[in-house]
């Protein structure tokens, strides 16, 4: 497959400050490769081809070019488009101490202290009068959440209160922040009837360390999977009787329950419509699901050199050590033995090593879309990922050498032997 270098990942992330922008970035790559953007209101083409749909901040893409029967198996790579951040409240204009301040609130499990003292931009989508929607991406440092000086906090780190300590300064005088956003989007603020706006670090992603061996970037969790999954889908040599699918969901960081999250009907509906468009029945859909496997891709905890004791002793994960299989006995991850075998085989065929992660039993473990989408679709699912440090920080770190093998393993998974 074409290389998926870490520099391309950095460009992907910098273009994609929000789930909506992730979908646009992925859509552009898919369209360039001949994928056709379908609306959910469209009747779907009967002829085999390459297609995708977007529902808000979620996207599902698939190829039926190698399909021979409506009940053919699906091979799905899943992931999520959202990342923790600070979002704009509806009534947000404050003016304490005569300053222009906007009220922000955390989305998902943002590691709050990491958002302080950063040059923040604002991005998201605006719903306009007349039913129009526009995306906005103000990639300028228009906001900043300053820390309290050490001299005013008893020299102890202050616990960050999500209600009181996360408001952002944007002006030395009072004003309307939405005016600024509408102005940058080139629209009349009076036409903005709804908005979902969120902050992002405007410092570009970078290759750091000796010879650029590390990636320093926001939103590695989980745009690495969005990037690698897209590259995998575009690179895959489809196997006869197997339909490769990429499913990227919004709202994973807040539990996936929405019209477009992994607990929604999005993936199941898309797959059923693929079967029906191919002339199949509902029974054919269930037969297809019974033959299908999903690799739920999300980031994994590399062993932190300063905190190695926080990791399960026999399951240390190396930066640069290749893709990671994620297991949890209490199903925070969906992985079981047959799923493990499917992904291990894909890694073997791709010629990449596979690391196995287990979380310490005395620490609460995060989750992924894996168990939720498995429950929703009934599909055998395996949780996998790529290693990183500082998960949920505004700025995360991974190994540059882990990007390409991850994409290669996912591509092999999409085309089983
Ligand atoms: Zn994640």
Main attributes?
417 residues; Aminopeptidase i, Domain 2; Aminopeptidase; 5-stranded mixed sheet
Low-confidence stretches: none
Strand content: 25-35%
Indicate the radius of gyration in whole angstroms.
22 Å
C-alpha geometry: globular
Give the overall average pLDDT.
95
- Please provide the count of β strands: 20
- Output the strand order for the largest sheet: 1-2-3-13-4-14-18-16-17
Distance between the termini: 16 Å
Q: Can you give the helix content as a percent range? A: 10-25%
For the biggest sheet, the summary is:
9 strands, mixed
The DSSP helix count reads 9
Q: What ligands are attached or bound here?
A: zinc ion
> Please, what is the oligomeric state?
single chain
CATH architecture of the largest domain: 3-Layer(aba) Sandwich
What does this structure look like?
- By secondary structure, this protein is of the alpha/beta class.
- It folds into two domains: 4-83 and 218-414, Zn peptidases (Aminopeptidase), CATH 3.40.630; 85-201, Aminopeptidase i, Domain 2, CATH 2.30.250.10.
- 25% of the residues lie in helices and 28% in strands.
- The protein has helices at residues 6-14, 19-32, 177-185, 220-235, 266-277, 282-290, 337-350, 370-377, 403-414, and strands spanning 36-37, 50-55, 58-63, 73-80, 85-94, 100-107, 120-128, 133-143, 168-171, 192-201, 206-208, 214-217, 242-249, 293-297, 300-301, 324-327, 355-358, 380-385, 387-389, 396-399.
- The strands form four sheets. Strands 1-2-3-13-4-14-18-16-17 form a nine-stranded mixed beta sheet, sandwiched between helices. A five-stranded mixed beta sheet has the order 11-12-20-19-15, covered by helices on one side.
- A hairpin with a 5-residue loop joins β11 (206-208) and β12.
- α2 (19-32) runs parallel beside α4 (220-235), α5 (266-277) crosses α6 and α7 packs across α9 (403-414).
- The protein starts with 5 loop residues before the first helix and ends with a helix.
- The mean pLDDT is 95.
